[in-house]
Write a structure and sequence with these properties.
Among the domains are: 56-143, no CATH class; 162-228, no CATH class. It is 55% helix and 3% strand. It has helices spanning 20-26, 57-70, 74-92, 98-124, 132-142, 144-148, 161-177, 183-201, 206-216; strands at 32-35, 51-54. Strands 1-2 form a two-stranded parallel sheet. The chain starts with 19 loop residues before the first helix and ends in a 22-residue tail after the last helix.
Length: 238
């Protein structure tokens, strides 16, 4: 049993702003767990209770890591060690079944999370308000329910790294594309990135998949278009 019961899929959606209403419209009627950062625009999604918030441990770790670049604080180093232990627990169960991973997390991740939380609460009392260390600890404590929610399951991820890896090319290139094209072009780009990103997640070479699909498309029956989607079908010959 793999981490996902269905072929992995990435979906890009183009909007003109980060307003929370866009996420609400996109997810309208959907129920489940949503892994997000602490952006205020997402908060309204969780008030009705249909969508449950997950936090990204990698983002919390990154805040401590960035602070470690500017200070030699033993507090920051200890925080990073706590998080590293959580990731070691995840790494050992990465290829396990959902049930096996849930039992593993209950035995090892839950106690480690409790120790980390207790250490954060105790340590926060020793650092001055307004300091960089205080701000990072406050962020982690504020997000704690969402950050630790993954450990009660065998299928929810500890972080959002797979999504961040998929969107990295977009994030790196966005300044170059800022004044290029139109809103229509943005929507078309989102569709194309959805297909190429999904191909990559399914172990396909996006360029080879796209070439093969474009060659087949002119004579392909409309009733069988779904067969051309990049969902772990046979890799076309290079």
């Amino acid at each position: 049993m793999t981490w996902r019961a269905t072929p992995p899929t990435v979906v890009f959606d183009y909007q003109v702003s980060r307003a929370g209403r866009h996420a609400a419209n996109f997810l309208q009627g959907w129920r489940g767990h949503l892994l997000v950062d602490d952006y205020v625009g997402y908060k309204a999604l969780f008030r009705a209770g249909w969508i449950i918030e997950l936090g990204c441990m990698a983002q919390a770790r990154r805040k401590f890591f960035d602070l470690a670049q500017a200070t030699q604080s033993p507090i920051v180093r200890q925080a990073l060690r706590h998080i590293a232990r959580l990731y070691r627990i995840e790494a050992q169960a990465a290829d396990w079944t959902r049930a096996g991973r849930q039992a593993w997390r209950a035995r090892y991740a839950h106690p480690r999370l409790r120790l980390y939380h207790a250490w954060l609460v105790k340590t926060r009392l020793t650092v001055p308000d307004g300091s960089g260390t205080a701000k990072v600890i406050d962020y982690t404590l504020r997000r704690w329910p969402a950050l630790g929610r993954y450990a009660a399951t065998g299928h929810l991820p500890i972080d959002n790294n797979p999504v961040e890896n998929v969107i990295r090319p977009i994030a790196l290139g966005k300044k170059n594309w800022l004044f290029t094209g139109s809103e229509r072009a943005g929507r078309r780009a989102a569709v194309l990135q959805t297909l190429l990103g999904t191909a990559k997640l399914n172990g396909l070479d996006p360029a080879v998949w796209l070439r093969d699909t474009l060659e087949k498309l002119p004579t392909w029956p409309n009733s069988r278009l779904d067969e051309l989607l990049p969902l772990r079908r046979e890799q076309p010959a290079a």
